[in-house]
């Protein structure tokens, strides 16, 4: 799911003012700055690729193919963020970050890449656009935070754009999974049937349906968490009192 | 100050005895209620013998809704027993209708049902007659968590073992025989440990002593391991995995092993902390290894 939405403090570095944990050392900071700059650049490439393809073709259809490779590369690269948490240079939960990155990687590889027929769906463009805008803001947010020079505009964007981007991404993702269902059922993709010597079976079709259902409890939780974070971080804009 | 039992059965703000200054605000008293300060007391402690002067300050902590250990164990173990049997007898709506109330043609499936049922009947009887629990209760939410785990896995395993398309073990009788021996050996072992632990503790008491090997050879493993009950439990499930050659059973074994290792390490650590003379050769759960 598009859970790495702007301002998800679960993936975030400490962007809440008073939690001054002892941060990463100088070498780790340098590495993280480079990592975040590269990721920002990568998603900018994807954004530019989408715009250029649209202008060239004059339609929204089939834009996925023009950014397929950088999308796969940079979205998969985000797996490094799990490592960052595990090693401790980023103060986030390994489990939470893992969950969010894996859900993105799942949609990229196990759904969009694996089921060729959905690649021309408009829903793919919907979630790719949402992810692109989200990630450009998120990675530039981290970059500036690490350099202790965070422009308010970026902070504001991170905690405001999600209002639209989150539902947009979720809609795109759900529609894409839904579009994949008939093809998965027909071909038995990634499924194991009985009988076999391990006495085990797996129905990918049912698994995808369960995944879609899991959005129902999960999406509101994440969305409202973001709203709460927004109040905390941007709250001082409305009232002049110190953020909690 | 009344000597009512503290801790376990408090729901909301029941009986709180706190020493406060006259000018303390209600807010301050409330926050003291939630702070846990000072030494945690035992039920058996006598007021007179506590290391306090003429005034003492008690802090009460609300543990939330509680449920007794016995209730939780009985519920979480009865589930798998019943659920497995439902799959074994192939009650309707699980498999295709033509298989309703039929039985498997593989004798290992009958054996597996007997072993699985025996295991949970043993657990239920131990809960009722053998175990002496340190704590009366645990948080209520645990029963939902635990039952989901036990009942869920039982259904998952039972579905495949009792499936009309079940494939018996590759190495046939040899494999099943070896597995059964391992399973039975570890069931007896596990039971022996439970008895040995029970005998460490007089009825109604909550004393803690270092367990040692007894005349029963199955307890000699205490020489090498702090929590041999978990060691034997792992062995039983390895036996069952081998017997059924079923991947979900293997998953259940692995998950259970991870959890038991966490418990064993915790228990081992508290033994070391409590007893100066704790035998140094012992490992938490696997001899020399873990």
TrEMBL record, chain A:
Membrane topology of the entry: Multi-pass membrane protein
Involved pathway(s): Lipid metabolism; fatty acid biosynthesis
Compartments (UniProt record): Endoplasmic reticulum membrane; Membrane
Assigned GO CC terms: endoplasmic reticulum membrane
Keywords linked to the UniProt accession: Endoplasmic reticulum, Fatty acid biosynthesis, Fatty acid metabolism, Lipid biosynthesis, Lipid metabolism, Lyase, Membrane, Transmembrane, Transmembrane helix
Reaction(s) the record says it catalyses: (3R)-hydroxyhexadecanoyl-CoA = (2E)-hexadecenoyl-CoA + H2O; a very-long-chain (3R)-3-hydroxyacyl-CoA = a very-long-chain (2E)-enoyl-CoA + H2O
Gene Ontology molecular function: very-long-chain (3R)-3-hydroxyacyl-CoA dehydratase activity
Pfam families, sorted: PTPLA
Annotated TM spans: 32-55, 76-99, 159-184, 204-224
EC numbers for this chain: 4.2.1.134
Main location: endoplasmic reticulum
Source superkingdom: Eukaryota
Top EC class of this enzyme: lyase
Protein's GO biological process: fatty acid elongation; sphingolipid biosynthetic process; very long-chain fatty acid biosynthetic process
Family (UniProt): Belongs to the very long-chain fatty acids dehydratase HACD family.
Function, as annotated: Catalyzes the third of the four reactions of the long-chain fatty acids elongation cycle. This endoplasmic reticulum-bound enzymatic process, allows the addition of two carbons to the chain of long- and very long-chain fatty acids/VLCFAs per cycle. This enzyme catalyzes the dehydration of the 3-hydroxyacyl-CoA intermediate into trans-2,3-enoyl-CoA, within each cycle of fatty acid elongation. Thereby, it participates to the production of VLCFAs of different chain lengths that are involved in multiple biological processes as precursors of membrane lipids and lipid mediators.
Full protein name: Very-long-chain (3R)-3-hydroxyacyl-CoA dehydratase
UniProtKB/TrEMBL annotation, chain B:
Ranges where the 3-oxo-5-alpha-steroid 4-dehydrogenase C-terminal domain occurs: 137-290
Membrane-protein topology: Multi-pass membrane protein
An annotated GO cellular component: membrane
Transmembrane portions of the chain: 67-89, 148-166, 178-197, 218-240, 246-264
Gene Ontology BP term (one): very long-chain fatty acid biosynthetic process
PANTHER family linked to this entry: 3-OXO-5-ALPHA-STEROID 4-DEHYDROGENASE, VERY-LONG-CHAIN ENOYL-COA REDUCTASE
Protein name in the entry: Trans-2,3-enoyl-CoA reductase b
GN (gene name): TECR
